[in-house]
Amino acid sequence: MENWIGVGVWIVLGALVGLTMKVVVRHPDEQPGHTLLLVIFGAFGALIGGMLGVGFFHFEDPRSLSAGGMAGALALSTLLTWLYRWGARALI
Asked: Residue 43 and residue 27: Cα distance in Å, rounded?
């Protein structure tokens, strides 16, 4: 049960990173709907990054609520949402 709670924490962390990225990288003429995409990209990135972080750093005792899992979730969700905001900015 503890691992499922950690996965939920990753998803919430990724959603918060997506919302934070919306505030940090501003667009003057932004279309509606980007907020939902940022939340989805952030949650997806956090889920994949958390799994990779647990796999790389805590291979012997895999727990999702660990430093490696949280760092991986934070890093990949930040990267994916930043790439989306940067890419969408270049397309507009």
From this structure: 22
Going by C-alpha positions, the residue among 43, 38, 33 that lies closest to residue 87 is 38
Low-confidence ranges of the chain (pLDDT < 50): none
Instruction: Report CA-CA distances (Å) from 12 to 27, 47, 59, 60, 86.
Output: 24, 10, 24, 26, 22
Q: Which parts of the chain are beta strand (E)?
A: none
Distance CA 3, CA 83 (A): 29
What are the boundaries of each domain within the chain? 2-91
Q: Do residues 17 and 77 lie in contact, with contact meaning Cβ atoms separated by under 8 Å? A: yes
Identify the burial level of 61 via C-beta atoms within 10 angstroms of its C-beta, where 0-12 means exposed, 13-18 middle and 19 or more buried. Answer: exposed
pTM over 0.90: no
